[in-house]
Amino acid sequence: MPDERTADDYRTLLWRAMRAALAAVEPEGAVLRACKRDGDVVHAGRRAYDLAQVDRIVLIGAGKAGAPMAKAVVSLLGERLSARVVNVKRGYVLSQSDLADMQARCACPIEFFEAGHPTPDSVGVRGAQRITEVLRNLTPRDLVICVISGGGSALMTLPAPGITLDDMQQLTNLLLASGASINEMNCVRKHLELLKGGGLARLAQPASVLTLVLSDVVGNPLDVIASGPTVPDSTTFAQALAVLDKYGLVGQVPAAITQRLKAGAAGALPETPKAGDVAFQRVNNVIVGSNELAAQAAVDQARQDGLQTLLLTTFLEGEAREVAKVAAGLAKDMHLNDRPLAKPGLLVAGGETTVTLRGRGKGGRNQELALAAALALEGWQGVLLAALATDGSDGPTDAAGAIVSGDTIESARQKGLDGLAYLKDNDSYSFFRQSGDLIVTGPTNTNVNDLLFILAF
Known about the structure:
By secondary structure, the chain is α/β, with parallel strands linked by helices. About 40% of the residues lie in helices and about 20% in strands. It has a 6-stranded parallel β-sheet with strand order 6-5-4-7-8-9, with helices on both faces. Strands 10-11-15-12-13-14 form a 6-stranded mixed β-sheet, with helices on both faces.
C-alpha cells in the first residue's frame, strides 16, 4: 500500500517523537518514580530510609532540572525538611503557583539561586556558599537529599583558596572554545573547586546522603555528572593538567590555575577523595533519568506512529561537523537502500558532540550539527534531520536545535543566505533564525544530553 503521508506529515511525526522524549525525562515525575514513601519509610534505589530514625532532612542541589526535582522531594517529605537550597539556571524556576504550593508544604524557606550557565557567576558562588552553610554541624541521624542534574558544574561553583571566580570564568570560556569534552572539562574543575569531585560528600559527613541524579553525560558516569559532588573522583591533578596541555591552554589560563594544578600533581596538595574514602560510606547515588530513557521514549512513540525505528546509540560523541556527515550518510542510505531501516524509518541517537570555535558567530553544538548536515543533504528529497538539546538551550542561545531537510540550503539561498559561510563562522543560530528552522521549546527544566533524529521516507 503506497504511503500517502506528506513531508509535512513526517515533520509532525518527528515533533511527536521529540516531545515524547522530553516527557519521559520530566524531572518531577522521574524523581517520584525512583523514590517512594510508605509511611515513615522512604525507598530510593536499593536502600530504605526510616524517617523515625532521622532528626533533620536537608534538601540541596544544583542543575537545570533542580526546581522540579526539588518540587518532587517536597511533595514526598515537605513536612520533614529543615532547609532547602538549590542552584538553578537563570530562568529555570517554577511558576509562582508551584512555588507557593512548595512553601505551603513545609515551614522552611525556599532558597533558589538563579545562576549563570555555561559560564559560572557570582550568584552560583553565593548559592554554593549557602549550601556549605546548611551542611555544617550535621550528625549521623541527619539526612541530606541532593538533587543533581546537567549544568550543575557551572551552577554550583565554589573556587578553592587562591582561585577566584574570574579565574574560573576565564577557564570555562577557554575550555568551551577548545573542543574539550565534558569529561575533560569536569576533570579540571574538580581540582580547582571545593564541592566537586566528592567534596560535597566530604562536607556532609557524618550525615547520610541520598543523591538523586538526572544524567546529562554520555554513559552516565556518576563522577562526571555535575562534576560528581557526592562521588569518588577517579581523576587526578596530573590528569587535569594534561587536559590543559592537550588543548594548548597551559599558557592561556590564569596563572593561579596552573600553579594549583602543578602543585597538586607534585603532591603538595591533597587529592580529591577516591573510592574507599570514609566520606562515601553513607552515600547513596541514584540515577532517576538519562539519555537512554529519553531516546527510548522517542523510539517507542515513532513505532506507535507506524515508523520503522532503531535506537542507534546513546554514546554519540565527536566534532559536530563530522558527526553531521555520518548522520547525513545514514539518511541517504535509508532513503536509497532501506538500510539500516526500511522506509519510512527513524534512527535515534543520543550523546553530546563538541564544537571547536573557528569563527565569531553564535550557535550551539546541535545547531552546528544541523547546519553541517543540511549542507551534506542538499538536494536530497525524503529526508529530515533534527538535532535537539533536551534542556531547551543549545549553547548561548534561546533555541534547542534545528530541523533540516534536503531543501534547507536551497530555500535559504533564495533568502540570500550562504549556509557554508555561516558554518565557517560558527554562526548557525543566525542562519536558522533567518531560515525559520530553529527548534524553540523554551526552558524544559530537564537535561539529559542531546538527541539526534534521522528520518527517511
